[in-house]
Amino acid sequence: MRRSYKYLLRATSKQATALAQCLEDHRQLYNAALEHRHTAYAKAGASIRYGEQSADLKHIRGDDPGGQGRWSFSSQQATLRRLDKAFRAFFDRVKAGRIPGFPRFKGRGWFDTVEWPKDGDGCRWDSQPEHPAATYVRLRGVGHVRVHQHRPVKGRVKTIAVKREGNRWYVVLSCDDVPAEPLPATGAAAGIDMGVASLVTTSDGEHLANPRHLAATAERLETTQRALSRKKRGSKRRRKVVARVAALHGKVRRQRLDYAHNAALALVRDYDLIVHEDLPITNMTRSASGTIEAPGRNVAAKAGLNRSILDAGWGVFLTILAHKAESAGRELIAVNPAGTSRTCARCGHCAKENRVTQAEFACTACGHAAHADVNAAVNILRAGLALRRASEAA
């Protein structure tokens, strides 16, 4: 199986400057390649492909030895492939009839990653293995950068990427052939209902709290963003406030990830089979319909619900849960969520009136009463077991 490892870089000030310049040169390469494609099609109706732009790299590097020529050829090819991937996704959306979204030029704050496609080609993980107490990664044009390796790397390092988050630099390793770590069987199965009041509610009646990390930081964020709005663009003071805003958002992101890892691990340890809703989170968090002249109904309420769903981090949690279940040898099933919150887990009667309040369920047919999320989790588990039996029969 494949797994990613993310470590903090302990770069010196000189190395941090080199990393920033590397990122900037790759951003300029991306924008120049995008401009090349745009101009060629606008002026001559010609479509430029990755192969042509990759072939031009040799001349670009030769003409700019102190700039583009300093960095790894493979990492620059990876940046061009990144642009090619954006164009392929654009054409796929056009064919599917969705809103296409043409690839955009990357501003300084919108390009934060450089990738090296192969360990040993312009980069080297654990470049000083003889060092007794520290781990280093070597990057062409930057040097040997110390890594805060808080856990061991398993498997074979395939790609290496460097990412900037605020004022911090991270190295991200993508590893193949990572051995699975199966957990002992428990013989238990659970359905889980995702929510805002509780992040997860299991069919056994257990509730995992929603810590609402963004809401806890909202006041500090609001104060800092008000200060940002008063600063002059391009000024040193504005850059400092931007860094503070980024640091606050980074802290919220790390808190959300840490909580999701712990919650997912607890579920994987307790259950052999976990069934969850296949939630269309993107559709659920869309803005309220309407226009500026005729806005939709309950716009403020919809915006608040969207913010709560995104703060809960359903997508992050389900992604982490899938990875941990695969590694532990657990079975994970996604089911259609339609009707699970309105259906009685005892008699199967489905009606809108069954859901009395957000937390209370009372069946209008048989009188069954339960916590609404627990009732939904039981229905989710049954739907998952039915799917598994159908697949086994087929």
From TrEMBL:
Assigned keywords, A-Z: DNA recombination, DNA-binding, Metal-binding, Transposition, Zinc
GO MF annotations in UniProt: DNA binding; metal ion binding
Domain Probable transposase IS891/IS1136/IS1341: 181-287
Domain (Cas12f1-like TNB): residue spans on this chain: 314-380
Start and end residues of each Transposase putative helix-turn-helix domain: 1-44
Family under the similarity heading: In the N-terminal section; belongs to the transposase 2 family.
NCBIfam families given in the database record: guided_TnpB (NF040570)
Any one Gene Ontology BP term: transposition
InterPro entries documented for this protein: Cas12f1-like_TNB, RNA-guided_DNA_endo/Transpos, Transposase, Transposase_put_HTH
Keyword Metal-binding appears in the UniProt entry: yes
Name this protein carries in UniProt: Putative transposase
Pfam families: Cas12f1-like_TNB, HTH_OrfB_IS605, OrfB_IS605
